[in-house]
Amino acid sequence: MVKLLIMAIETEKITLNLGPVDLGQVDLLVQEGFYSTRTDFLRTAIRNQLLVHADVLKQAAVRKTLVLGLQRFTRKDLEAVQAAGQKLRIRVLGLATIDEDVSPELAMATIDEIYVLGAFHASAGVKRALASRLQ
């Protein structure tokens, strides 16, 4: 039997307050068929601004020594770090994930610092244990 693992693209929900005129203009563009939904408009606007500032973002990521994209840590990864007597400084622009089977004790023993611009996913216990190390 072949088992396929398909990872959905993860998104984070944000809340945005707009004035009634701006919101009305967005709704008009949706109504006129330029965008399928308000969300489609906002995603497009955000992506366009990120493209405008792409060079600045790249330079800042390099300057701050950030991993760009997804960085995942498994129990096996952290056990190897622990066996080597090392500790991690996790610095991510995007998504940092610590697998659900990682214990809070293992996370504490192997992670010195976590700095994430974007999203950080881990069990509630790991997040509590690392709270003082989150920047």
Q: What is this entry, summarized?
A:
This protein is of the alpha/beta class and 135 residues long. The protein has 6 helices and 3 strands, in the order αααβαβαβα. The N terminus is likely disordered.
Characteristics of this structure?
2 domains; 3 strands; Transcriptional regulator, CopG/Arc/MetJ family; RHH_8; disordered N terminus; 135 residues
Q: How is the topology of this model organized?
A:
Elements: H1 20-31, H2 38-52, H3 54-63, E1 67-73, H4 75-83, E2 88-98, H5 104-110, E3 111-121, H6 124-130
Parallel strand pairs: 1-2, 2-3
Helix pairs in contact: 4-5, 5-6
InterPro entries: RHH_8, Ribbon_hlx_hlx
Organism: Pedosphaera parvula (strain Ellin514)
Protein name: Transcriptional regulator, CopG/Arc/MetJ family
Order of H and E elements: HHHEHEHEH
**Helical residues, percent:** 40-55%
Q: Main β-sheet, in a few words? A: 3 strands, parallel
Radius of gyration (Å):
20 Å
Spans with pLDDT under 50 lasting ≥5 residues? Answer: 1-8
- Could you give the distance between the termini? 44 Å
Mean residue pLDDT? 90
**What count of helical segments does DSSP give?**
6
Number of domains: 2
* Rough outline: elongated
The total count of strands amounts to 3
**Helix vs. strand class:** alpha/beta
Strand order of the largest sheet: 1-2-3
What fraction of residues sit in β-strands? 15-25%
Pfam family, one: RHH_8
Protein name: Transcriptional regulator, CopG/Arc/MetJ family
